[in-house]
Amino acid sequence: MRYLIVILYICVLLLYLNEADIQCTKAYSIICYIQGQSISPTNPFIIVNSNQTKASSVIIFDGQMPIMPNTIFLNNPQISTISINSMNLQQIAPDNFANGGNLKSIIIMKGMIKTLGNGTFKSCTNLLQLQITEQQISFIDINTFLGLQNLQILVLNNNQISSLHPLLFNPLISLSVILLQNNSLNSLDSTLFVKNTMLSGIYFAGNSITDLSNDLFKNQNFKSGSIDFSYNYLTTAQSYGASTINFSFNKLKTFYLSSGESTINIRNNFLRKIICPNSIPTVKRLYLSNNSLSNFLCIRDMHSFQHKTHYTI
Ligand SMILES: *[C@@H]1O[C@H](CO)[C@@H](O)[C@H](O)[C@H]1NC(C)=O
Ligand SMILES: *[C@@H]1O[C@H](CO)[C@@H](O)[C@H](O)[C@H]1NC(C)=O
Ligand SMILES: *[C@@H]1O[C@H](CO)[C@@H](O)[C@H](O)[C@H]1NC(C)=O
Ligand SMILES: *[C@@H]1O[C@H](CO)[C@@H](O)[C@H](O)[C@H]1NC(C)=O
Ligand SMILES: *[C@@H]1O[C@H](CO)[C@@H](O)[C@H](O)[C@H]1NC(C)=O
């Protein structure tokens, strides 16, 4: 009889602490780390550690979660940061973030996501940062970013994105920084950024872009902005008035300066000359090595230029 009670007790305990429950493998105040676990899409996502049930940052890594449970934010509405790293995630389904209204930051790294679909983040109206990197994304549907009117940072580095619909970024009216490095883009529509008037950091290094429209950034004020289009196939480019500019490792024959530039990196191109307005007093660092410059008129006029330290041919 006593044994029976003990066995019953163990059974009840096992039922209570069932496989659905998620343990924080490590926890520091409001951060819950969940390492090396297999997370099923059908079991409700419940964090059981006593004082971690209020974790606002949840970091899930080095395990298996090919399909994401819809209950993560339903059961844990206090989560404001979610990071999913190396979980073999295969896709993001339309309802995965349906209860993500309190999310400020979504970071998804090292997975196998192939597409992003319409309305995936439409409930995430408070999201500030969205990073989906080192996946296999080749298609982003036109209404994927609907509802992200507060998003400031978008990172889609290391994917296989080969085109961006001209209206794709229209909902992102607060976007400040965009990174799409190491993808397969070969062109950008001239109206791609018309609604993103707050943009000041553009990082598109490592694509196959062959030309950029003069109007691409006509709605931005880049006074303290950065643009990086290094490692592309551009034959001509301009500074767009940004402060830090990188067009190194392209196929530039001509480069047009406007004004306000501080750092210009145009090494490893085929430049014969740089074309600039009469006086460009702001340039402090100029990286020019590995070009074919024969005309130095423009450089001669760079009065605040720190010759000895940064001028390289
Ligand atoms: C749980 O909460 C207590 C009291 O706030 C704290 O001292 C303890 O470090 C917490 N434990 C963990 C694992 O975070
Ligand atoms: C996404 O929305 C656009 C515009 O409404 C529509 O044309 C497209 O078919 C939608 N995509 C899917 C997969 O339904
Ligand atoms: C892009 O790829 C290059 C070459 O493989 C690598 O050196 C660089 O770190 C990558 N950039 C990012 C943002 O991962
Ligand atoms: C481009 O040049 C800038 C300024 O020199 C540098 O900070 C940045 O890392 C470079 N980008 C790449 C992809 O090398
Ligand atoms: C110049 O180009 C050569 C050959 O591609 C390369 O080895 C070298 O690192 C480049 N120098 C600089 C400063 O980029």
Structural notes for this entry:
- It is built from four helices and 20 strands.
- Residues 6-16 have low confidence and may be disordered.
- It is mostly beta strands.
- The chain has a domain at 225-313.
- It is elongated.
- The strands form four sheets. It has a 13-stranded mixed β-sheet. The chain has a three-stranded parallel β-sheet with strand order 15-17-19. Strands 1-4 form a two-stranded parallel ribbon.
- The chain binds 2-acetamido-2-deoxy-beta-D-glucopyranose (NAG) (5 copies).
Topology at a glance:
Blueprint: H1 2-16, E1 21-22, E2 26-28, E3 31-35, E4 46-47, E5 57-61, H2 71-75, E6 81-85, E7 105-109, E8 115-116, E9 129-133, E10 139-140, E11 153-155, E12 177-179, E13 201-203, E14 226-228, E15 236-238, E16 244-246, E17 254-256, E18 263-265, E19 273-275, E20 285-287, H3 297-300, H4 307-310
Parallel strand pairs: 1-4, 3-5, 5-6, 6-7, 7-9, 8-10, 9-11, 11-12, 12-13, 13-14, 14-16, 15-17, 16-18, 17-19, 18-20
Antiparallel strand pairs: 2-3
